[in-house]
Design a protein that fits this description.
Elements (H helix, E strand, L loop, with lengths): L6 E6 L8 E5 L2 E7 L5 E5 L13 E3 L2 E3 L6 E2 L5 E3 L14 E2 L1 E4 L2 E5 L23 E2 L3 E5 L3 H8 L5 H4 L15 E4 L3 E11 L15 E10 L3 E10 L14 E13 L2 E10 L6 H30 L12 H24 L1
Antiparallel strand pairs: 1-11, 2-3, 3-4, 4-9, 5-6, 6-7, 7-8, 10-11, 12-19, 13-19, 14-15, 15-16, 16-17, 17-18, 18-19
Length: 345
């Protein structure tokens, strides 16, 4: 059902601190906190005795003490104290998960711990470039399967109907899409030439008049979206052309973490090639993005319910080509990972 040997965003950095905070990722219950030196720790949120959540326990220095009978576990999941008896049971341990801080988020590795390399966390282009502005990012919980969000992030066409007051503009409803496979995902893109700038971007673009607009919708396995919007003066854009110096560029990064089969934790951030350090512009972009993604959430939560309770077959449209291709490839990766685990067992 899920790809495990990969990094998922579990929380914003400020959401993991001294307190014992419960989370759920890929259906597994996890407790996270930070040691005194700031290092993040994640353990299975269940004492091995009677499975009381360790998040209901107490901190003892850098360790967690279960709130039922005092079994105490260090950051590796090893039991270091069993107050009710003289010896510590050999099976008294809990699973630990590698964590890493990156891009204002805490990332968790759900697969084989030995394979957890923080260098494999997605790279954010121009995150620290002095000429680029950055939003602080945001998050929400969506009551739908993560793959419906993936479908949405590989579907530029939906903006014409879902985002009427923000991203929509003439051309978004009928300009053909180009689907391409990359080494780590799928890209669905298109250039729309000689068009009006959409309402969301109009205050941000620095040139006047009509534009040539690129929609670049990319998702990397298993659930990392990279949307790039490029607006360049009409007549200067198009496939194969270098980007005009007057072009406005915004990149939106989407990190989808399955909580379980019916719930997804959705994190995002944006950066752009203008207005570095301008807090007012960043706040404007963040507020607009939040409104748009709330529109997506309303639609996709209803899609999840509709698909789960359908009484007649659903159909696929031409615009679904990228999403269907992504799903097939991801299913193959998950099957291969599961087969490898079975072979090594």
């Amino acid at each position: 059902m899920y790809l495990r040997n990969t990094w998922y965003a579990i929380a914003r950095c400020e959401e993991v601190g001294d307190a014992l905070s419960p989370f759920q990722v890929l259906g597994e219950r996890i407790v996270a906190y930070r040691k005194a030196d700031g290092t993040p720790v994640a353990l299975e949120d269940a004492c091995p005795h009677r499975k009381l959540p360790l998040s209901m326990g107490r901190r003892r220095g850098d360790n967690i003490m279960c709130g039922y009978h005092g079994l105490t576990f260090d950051g590796s999941g090893t039991c270091v104290e069993a107050p009710t008896q003289g010896n510590i049971p050999s099976t008294a341990r809990v699973k630990s998960y590698p964590l890493a801080d990156r891009w204002g988020l805490v990332w968790i590795w759900m697969g084989e711990a030995a394979a957890a390399d923080p260098a494999k966390i997605i790279h954010i282009d121009n995150h620290d470039s002095p000429g680029w502005g950055l939003t602080n990012g945001d998050s929400m919980t969506c009551n739908c399967n993560y793959l419906y969000l993936v479908d949405n992030l590989l579907d530029p066409s939906h903006v014409a109907w879902v985002h009427v007051t923000s991203f929509a503009a003439p051309g978004t409803e009928d300009t053909p899409l180009h689907v391409a496979k990359t080494d780590n995902g799928i890209v669905v893109s298109r250039w729309m030439l000689n068009r009006d700038v959409p309402l969301y971007y109009a205050p941000l673009v620095k040139f006047q008049g009509k534009c040539d607009r690129l929609q670049h919708y990319e998702v990397r396995y298993p659930s990392l979206g990279v949307n790039k919007s490029v607006f360049t003066p009409a007549g200067t854009g198009g496939a194969g052309k270098s980007v005009d110096e007057k072009a406005y560029m915004m990149a939106s990064y989407h990190f989808l973490t399955p909580v379980d089969a019916e719930t997804t934790r959705y994190f995002w951030l944006q950066n752009r090639n203008t207005d570095p350090g301008n807090a007012e512009v960043s706040a404007q972009i963040a507020a607009g993005a939040r409104r748009a993604f709330e529109e997506d959430r309303e639609i996709l939560e209803a899609v999840h319910k509709g698909m789960a309770n359908r009484t007649t077959p659903n159909l696929d449209l031409t615009l679904d080509a990228g999403a269907l291709r992504f799903r097939r490839a991801l299913s193959g990766m998950i099957a291969a990972e599961n087969n490898a685990l079975k072979a090594s067992a």
